[in-house]
User: What shape does this take?
Amino acid sequence: MSLDVVDLRSFYSQQLGTVARRFIGRGIRARWADTRGQRVLGIGYPTPYLGLFREHAERCLAFMPAQQGVVRWPTERPTLAALVEEYDLPLTEGAVDRVLLVHALEMAEDGLSLLREVWRVLAPSGRVLVVIPNRRGLWARMDTTPFGYGRPYSRSQIVHLLRESSFTPTSWGEALYMPPISRRWFMRSAVAWERTGATLSAPFAGVHIVEATKQVYRAVPARREKRRLVPSLEPALEPMPGAVARNRAP
Assistant: This one.
């Protein structure tokens, strides 16, 4: 079951969604601190986080899958959001420098095809940042937030998927160590949960934040060609036609 854009927008308008956006946004910003002159593309429902880059990036776009729906973004400026087919993005090869995936990979029916399409539109040495629910975390086990829908991933699963789609993982982080409880009194301790979980490297974080670079040249194992044995030929004299005719003459 996938969520539509109304459910996602409703979550981020609530206090729990605001807390989630703040903690995930810190993890994203820690890896992409400088996007000046970069072309940034967000896929899925990335609008709560694209504001981190809009003022400094050369270009900032939001692509939302057709089955999810689309919302206007930004609300007070010319729209930079579009409804797309996630496996056939309306961009040429190498059109963007960075791609942010949020509420995208876990919702995709074919994660490998989605990442290969991301690979296609990324420039050489381009980078992708994936925010995806942690299979071992509490957020993936409760459907009270968008992170409880779709397919969560373990660390080894996401690494394998990235490598299969010709990406090289370079950086790893987590966020959302606090349980997804929306009680106001409980959320007062959200910062303490986040600091403690990050300090202890606890395995129950709500989401993984994985950065990877585009691998342009894939290593191919060398094959030794089989040597074909050709039999050696002995030299032989070929008779000339004129000499044969002279020998037969009377």
Q: What stands out?
A: DSSP finds eight helices and seven strands in the chain. The chain has a mean pLDDT of 88.
